[in-house]
């Protein structure tokens, strides 16, 4: 138990003190080695070796590719095109641009793979359009923040790539398993938009004509083919998920530079620089996580946790519900990506002993952590939306509260009915 306290509680304390995630993981791992071997006997060569081993992975090449795709899409004016398609499709429903907001996020999710990219890029377009249409700023911001959480659920998904690499699970299966939960998220949020809009009398747009819809679709069709290229390529066996990310990146560069011609060379260099910075941060966290995972395995911490749970919880479904609550609590204080690195090596060996499919658990974990992105005190998406709107943080949180209902409802459904997550992977990958 002393080692567990040093590794887990110590790590949480370091994170709360503001220590960067990678260094907090390395420090807590080194503290265990110092506790068990003595400070003078810490194997520095082994620490260096294990951290380097963590980033020596072909799978992780997908991360910079997906990050670059998201930045290209935001800078190439793709957000406006996607929003126009969504507006023509559902703008006539009660709640008008509220539904458009959700559908646009679902479409954009298939390109960016990131909730913050959705909120920061598409969010500004969505909020301005809703305000111009007569929606109050707080409601517009709440819908935008809630719908942005769909980004890492519907593939491609950066958290899915990270989880798959850490858990040694099929990234293709996680991508497929996330599709139905992502669609359920969108449907649930649209129901809540309709309910609130009926109660408050929010405006509705006129139904788009076929000519308007065709024009919008022709402008936005090319970028919306990105997720199709990724999934069809993976399922057909033409390329792996990692190779798919590079193919999708090449496709996005072609339409950005050759078709739309909306990015200059100077802008592209800046995009590359920003992507390199984001990638280096993530890879440093991965390196620290590799050492952390090795220490967990070396001192059998996961086995101790598993033995404790096996002695107290016998039903796998009860375990999933308890772990969901635990992950939700972690998500209140730690951002989604660091939480994945912290929890995956600790929990995946436990759920496997209960006969729970790691693909199902991975989708649940990512879903839980996405809810954390719009939950204070560390709600990254909330802060991104606040930066766009200048709303007081309390006002934004209060406006977002009703949208927790559909998100938590979908989480409970996919927890109780694993077949929803596993349907497409079992159908298409067997």
UniProtKB/TrEMBL annotation:
Subcellular location: Cell inner membrane
Protein name (Swiss-Prot/TrEMBL): TRAP transporter large permease protein
Organism taxonomic ancestry: Bacteria, Pseudomonadati, Pseudomonadota, Gammaproteobacteria, Oceanospirillales
Physiological role: Part of the tripartite ATP-independent periplasmic (TRAP) transport system.
PANTHER family per the UniProt record, alphabetical: SIALIC ACID TRAP TRANSPORTER PERMEASE PROTEIN SIAT, SIALIC ACID TRAP TRANSPORTER PERMEASE PROTEIN SIAT-RELATED
Domain TRAP C4-dicarboxylate transport system permease DctM subunit: 8-420
InterPro entries cross-referenced by the UniProt entry: DctM, TRAP_DctM
Keyword check for Transmembrane: yes
Transmembrane domains' residue ranges: 6-33, 53-73, 171-196, 217-239, 245-263, 275-297, 317-334, 339-356, 362-383, 403-424
Species this chain originates from: Halomonas litopenaei
Subunit structure and binding partners: The complex comprises the extracytoplasmic solute receptor protein and the two transmembrane proteins.
Pfam families: DctM
Membrane topology per record: Multi-pass membrane protein
Membrane among keywords: yes
Family (UniProt): Belongs to the TRAP transporter large permease family.
Keywords (A to Z) from UniProt: Cell inner membrane, Cell membrane, Membrane, Transmembrane, Transmembrane helix, Transport
């Amino acid at each position: 138990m002393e080692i567990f306290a040093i590794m887990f509680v110590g790590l949480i304390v370091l994170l709360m003190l503001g220590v960067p995630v990678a260094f907090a993981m390395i420090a807590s791992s080194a503290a265990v080695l110092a506790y068990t071997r003595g400070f003078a006997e810490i194997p520095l060569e082994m620490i260096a070796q294990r951290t380097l081993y963590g980033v020596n992975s072909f799978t992780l090449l997908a991360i910079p590719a997906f990050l670059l795709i998201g930045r290209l899409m935001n800078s190439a004016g793709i957000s406006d095109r996607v929003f126009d398609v969504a507006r023509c499709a559902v703008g006539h429903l009660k709640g008008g641009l509220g539904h458009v907001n959700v559908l646009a996020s679902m479409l954009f999710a298939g390109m960016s793979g990131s909730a913050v990219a959705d909120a920061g890029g598409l969010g500004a377009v969505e909020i301005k359009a809703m305000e111009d249409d007569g929606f109050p700023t707080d409601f517009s911001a709440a819908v935008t923040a809630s719908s942005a959480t769909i980004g890492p659920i519907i593939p491609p998904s950066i958290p899915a790539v990270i989880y798959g690499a850490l858990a040694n699970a099929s990234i293709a299966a996680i991508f497929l398993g996330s599709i139905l939960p992502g669609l359920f998220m969108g449907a649930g949020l649209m129901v809540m938009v309709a309910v609130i809009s009926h109660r408050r009398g929010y405006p509705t747009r006129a139904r788009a004509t076929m000519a308007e819809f065709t024009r919008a679709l022709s402008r936005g069709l090319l970028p919306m083919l990105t997720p199709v290229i990724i999934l069809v390529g993976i399922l057909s066996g033409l390329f792996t998920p990692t190779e798919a990310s590079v193919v999708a990146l090449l496709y996005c560069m072609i339409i950005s530079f050759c078709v739309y011609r909306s990015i200059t060379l100077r802008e592209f260099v800046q995009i590359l620089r920003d992507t390199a910075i984001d990638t280096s941060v993530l890879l440093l966290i991965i390196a620290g996580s590799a050492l952390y995972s090795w220490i967990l395995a070396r001192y059998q911490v996961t086995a101790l946790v598993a033995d404790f749970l096996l002695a107290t919880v016998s039903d796998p479904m009860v375990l999933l519900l308890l772990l969901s609550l635990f992950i939700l609590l972690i998500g209140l204080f730690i951002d989604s990506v660091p939480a994945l690195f912290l929890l995956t090596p600790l929990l995946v060996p436990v759920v496997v002993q209960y006969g729970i499919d790691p693909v199902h658990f991975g989708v649940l974990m990512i879903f839980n952590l996405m809810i954390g992105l719009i939950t204070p005190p560390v709600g990254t998406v909330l802060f991104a939306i606040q930066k766009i709107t200048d709303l007081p943080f309390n006002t934004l949180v209060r406006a977002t509260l009703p949208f927790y209902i559909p998100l938590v409802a979908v989480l409970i459904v996919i927890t109780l009915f694993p077949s929803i997550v596993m349907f497409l992977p079992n159908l298409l990958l067997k």
